[in-house]
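Workshop exercise sheet. Pairs work together: one partner reads the sequence aloud, the other fills in the structure field after running the prediction. Swap roles for the next sheet.
Pair: D.N. / O.F.
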Amino acid sequence: MTALPYAVDAESPLREAELETLRTQYEKEGEMAGIQTKFNYAWGLIKSNARRDQQLGVQLLSDIFRVSPDRRRECLYYLALANYKLGNYGEARRYNDLLLDKEPANHQAADLRRLIDDKVTKEGLMGVAIISGVAIAAGVVGGILFRGRRR
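Structure field:
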């Protein structure tokens, strides 16, 4: 069983030349692209900072997941990681939880779970703050309008 990289690995994109090498190999193999070639390209796309690349990486990993049972473990982790980077935290958690169900002691997946939970909590708190701010502003405007009518 190969070790999975930690989530921080996905935060450092490949150099453009490295990604281009993976893309060229994938395109050269075309419809007959091997699972490893497709996986390597998907991995490079997920590491990218470009959302479109990350989405293509998710699509390729989903294809691999469907056709290659022996690569599902890796696909689950990278699908979770890619969805985390895309801000699809529900999907990220779903894939990561599937991996943790199979491997409860997987440290990389546990770390990713903490990152996902922290991000959801942080964005949830920001959402509450925004909604609270809007409610306060609406109350102030309503109070001003109400006072204006009474005069």
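Discussion prompt: Residues 107-150 form the longest helix (44 residues). What would you look at next?
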